[in-house]
Amino acid sequence: MRPSAERSRPAGRRQVLVPFLLSLFGGALPDQIHYSIPEELATNSVVGNLAKDLGFHVRDLPARKLRVSGEKEYFTVNQESGDLLVSGRIDREQICGKKPLCVLDFDAVAENPLNIFHVAVLVQDINDNTPVFKQNHIDLKIVESSQPGSAFPLDPALDSDAGPNSLQRYHLNDNEYFDLLEKQTPDGRKYPELILKHSLDREEQNYHQLVLRAVDGGDPPQSGTTQIRIQVTDANDNPPVFSQDLYRVSLREDMPPGTSVLQVTATDQDEGVNAEITYSFHNVDEQVAHFFHLDERTGEITTKDYLDFEVANSYTLRLEAKDPGDLAAHCSIQVDIVDENDCAPEVTVTSVFSPLPEDAPRGTVIALIKTRDRDSGENGEVYCRVFGDGEFKLKSSSKNYYKLVTDGVLDREQIPQYNITITATDRGKPPLSSSTSITLHIADVNDNAPAFHEASYVVHVAENNPPGASIAQVSASDPDLGPNGHISYSIVATDLEPQALSSYVSVSEQSGVVFAQRAFDHEQLRTFKLTLQARDQGSPALSANVSLRVLVDDLNDNAPRVLYPMLGPDGSALFDTVPRAAQPGYLVTKVVAVDPDSGHNAWLSYHVLQASEPGIFSLGLRTGEVRTARALGDRDAARQRLLVAVRDGGQPPLSATATLLLVFADSLQEALPDLSDRPAPSDPQAELQFYLVLALTLISVLFLLAVTLAIAMRLRRSSSPASWGCIQPRLSSKSGPGVLPNYSEGTLPHSYNLCIASQSAKTEFNFLSVSPGSVPTQDLLCDDASWAPSTNHGDTGVPFASDTILEVSFTYFDYFHFAF
Ligand SMILES: *[C@@H]1O[C@H](CO)[C@@H](O)[C@H](O)[C@H]1NC(C)=O
Ligand SMILES: *[C@@H]1O[C@H](CO)[C@@H](O)[C@H](O)[C@H]1NC(C)=O
Question: Closest ligand 2 atom, CA of 449?
Answer without folding.
Answer: 13
